[in-house]
User: What shape does this take?
Amino acid sequence: MYPTSNHEILTDISTEGLPEEYIKNPRNKDSFIKYYDNGIDNWGYNSRILSLADYFEGNSHHVHHVFYNNQQQSLMTRGKRVENRTFIDLKLIRCTTGKGGNGAITFFRDANRPLGPPDGGDGGDGGSIYFTVVDKNMSSLHRLKRTYEAGNGVNGKGSQLDGKRGDDIIIEIPVGTTIKWIPDPLTLRKYLSRREGEKLDDIKLKIQCDQFNNIQLIRETNWTVGEGWSFTEGDREFYETRDYFNELNEKVKENDHEIIQEELKFDTFPILGLDLSKPTSKPELLLKGGKGGMGNMHFLTKDIRNPNFSKKGREGITSFFLLELKLIADLGLVGLPNAGKSTLLRSISKARPRVGHWEFTTLQPTVGTIFTTIDEDPFTVADIPGIIKGASENKGMGLDFLRHIERCAGLVFVISLESKNPIIDLEVLLNEVGEKRMKDKKILIVATKADLNEDGENYMNLKQYIEPKGWKIVPVCAMKGQNVETCIKLMSEVAYSGKK
Assistant: This one.
């Protein structure tokens, strides 16, 4: 029999009794999977049960933004209106591959032979869906569509003509995107109703996996081994009483089994998702189209002279994926709201972020390119929207902003000397960014608005605070262009060392 999907959403199951190593460190592949002894079915699959929060690696707010999106949508709309551009870093897409065409039931005919041998061709394979990772002119997911549907295969024809293959689809995805499989959004939304912002540890995903911990995707409405026949005369019950058909069907079952096994081999997706951190040289398969059915020309035997039957094409497959863009830049500008990041980026690059004197001026990340000397490659700087205290707990859209820091090679903390206590401001940023995001990253401190602190006391205190950490600091007045060249030089050192 054909395996059936066993993906479920559960709320009444406990993780009590699980070994401790299965609960800690969700990014570790061995401990990420939480095993329940559900047994292995005849196809070699087992069920894995894990919390929704763990499945999204501790950041279940991603799910909230996709399914509720009230706050995210309002900020995105405001950002698009104010900054005159669209930036989307979370996208839910629905992908459907093409159905295989049916095999034809036809017979050769000419003037002297009104009913000749069978010559029905095979149906064409359904179109598949591929993705390619690009790094040119793509720094947002807003160009991606919500639905992708590949073409169906064409039915076979007479004279042994096979049907045309369905059209494939290639999705262009920007570098720095991760892809996660998710259950049917309509089903998942029922469990998330009125829970925006709350923890999701009590919602569990029961996922059917193969022996390599890949999610096994199932084509729900497909025929199984020994089925999938089409008839022009009689029906299945009629032919099941004929020994010649039953003998033929037993032989065809072997081919059916091979088709299904190959299908299941391709219908998998890593449970940890895909991390697309580099451009691809060629398109990669995401979902495979359905196999075309065999025409009646294959079923001519000594006992069957006029096969009035053929095989149907295999169904396509539909799956949902959550795409998350983690902005890639050599350096990330990190600071509190109104610290002067956008002004600094304007003064050192060709980027033109909006500049103002109120908090949260920047609502969407901006990337600027900095050219130094003719013999060195330029480096890029990302202006991350302002981080506030509690950002690591998603206050002020903090988690949405913080994830763009993860892929930066180095971090530039922008501290305003206009502040009453710049040291406290820096400590807030360090606590919210966290050691994990700062690991192996080069650090530079840029003290902005230096002209507003005439006695230099704030700057000297800040410099003494960071000296034990071994970080460099540079005072800058971006509005007046003071010390900008020195700032660019130090930033280039951090960027190039991070690249190495």
In short: The radius of gyration is 30 Å. Confidence is low (pLDDT under 50) at residues 13-42, 351-363, 390-399. The CA atoms of residues 397 and 483 lie 32 Å apart. Residues 8-325 form a domain with the Spo0b-associated Gtp-binding Protein; Chain: A, fold (CATH 2.70.210.12).
